[in-house]
């Protein structure tokens, strides 16, 4: 693990401070844009790479671009209303222009690899906002999810090497499921390795995440606020490291077992608990194979609330 983050003050930042613009610059700088975590493994995740971007403004154009067999960088402009799930093929970067919104539908990343989804607001979806299955090397970053029907981001069915970072979930129930069934071990054992970092679970209710089989699953530097159900649940052979997160007004920050699923392993360390329960941890978790930088847990609230969600990264 790298040393804790230190703020660097450049000559440009100092000059902006003299003109009163430093606060805005600091806020933008707090939203890291680099890929970290499991999606760096297995060859890494580059999406459409340097392919010239295509801008889409309709559901038909978006669906066509997402399902193309060629690498693509797809820029979403405006609000696109749709229903059901739009299939996402391999080697795609989907990034929203300012204010870009997907309303009423979601993305189905299935039997794909090397996919990036960034800077979009998903609302009112009727299935999942983002469903990842039988897919590898997926990065879901700086999106906002609100008021949908089922999962915001669900990862299942032998998927692997996934990073879910800097997203905001609010006014929603089931946030992030990892592993859909206790009976799917033959496909899922040794896979479902996901990193969740710097996400803002803002009054959302449960599954932040709910984990089966994946080991190690890394949940670090997320901010949990006013979650009515629970924060993290480790079940059915899972191993989850819950590290350096901030929980505020969360009665049940993390536990083992959920519903009919038996307890998994959960290691909790260096979490910041404010008006929250003590959590339930036990067992051991496999080691984390990648480098990462851990923010001070007491600073996570300010860092995440200033950087998570759509509209927080340069586009």
UniProtKB/TrEMBL annotation:
It comes from the Bacteria. Its EC number is 4.2.2.2. The keyword NAD does not apply. Keywords: Carbohydrate metabolism, Lyase, Polysaccharide degradation, Secreted, Signal. It is found in: Secreted. InterPro entries: PbH1, Pec_lyase, Pectin_lyas_fold, Pectin_lyase_fold/virulence, PEL, TAT_signal. GO terms for cellular component: extracellular region. Residues 49-253 form the Pectate lyase domain. GO terms for biological process: polysaccharide catabolic process. Residues 1-31 form the signal peptide. Residues 51-62 have a biased composition (Low complexity). Residues 42-62 are annotated as: Disordered. GO terms for molecular function: pectate lyase activity. PANTHER family: PECTATE LYASE 18-RELATED (PTHR31683), PECTATE LYASE 21-RELATED (PTHR31683:SF18). Belongs to the polysaccharide lyase 1 family. This is Pectate lyase. It comes from Nonomuraea muscovyensis.
